[in-house]
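Ticket #4471: structure export looks truncated?
Reporter: QA, pipeline team
Priority: medium

Steps to reproduce: submit the single chain below to the structure queue and open the exported record.
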Amino acid sequence: MAGTKYFGGVSSPAGVRSTRTKAAASSNVCESTAARPWEECMVNSRLSTMVVSAITGACVALAVSAYTGGRAETPLLAQAARPAQQNTLTAMDYVQIHNLVASYARGNDTCGNNGYMYADLFTADGSFNSSRNGKLGTPAVGREALAEAAGGGSKKCAKLDRPEGLWIHAIVNLIIEPSADGGATGTSDLVYPSLKGKDFDANHAGHVGGYRYVFAKTPQGWRFKSVVHELEPWAKVGNPRG
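Actual output as written to the record:
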């Protein structure tokens, strides 16, 4: 209807003049005329509001960027800035590694499966070596060499018939640490109980050094990557425990 004003969608006769009408007119209320339909006026008003909101948002973003030194941190950049997390071991990993070390002693002492029980505790390229006076010997590498290191293979477990008795590997004080490659390392002490009143040698009565291990997690479970027996006292080979 010509001459009718719209206030928020409610029409009011043109002849009505009040303070409300003046206030509404000052609040950008659209007036429907032949030259400017009410619908066009409302669309333009909404567009104006969107432009103002966009400008305001851009100003806020610039202010935040200036406050942070102009380097807006994205989730990817934030992740890259964090230090790399160290590998961790689960409770089950610790249990399985402890069982692996116990199996090392049992496989060695019993010469199980002609030494292959011991050998199969290692990775395919795993090795055993020993250190005397700080010098490493010749490593036993691979399944056959490791079986012989346990007294089996071509040796046929003859050590089980030693008249002076069999040295029992009592492995104690095992410490396990995760390594960055997803595996683990470890150390332990080794004790040979005296047999028939005889010790290992004149310098070693019971305690015969210790082991250093490198463990690898394989599809078949935890295995030894390497084992080194160090006969020297720990303090002389740089043991971190002192």
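Status: closed, not a bug. The export was complete when the record was re-opened. Leaving a note from the reviewer for reference: The CA atoms of residues 126 and 175 lie 20 Å apart.
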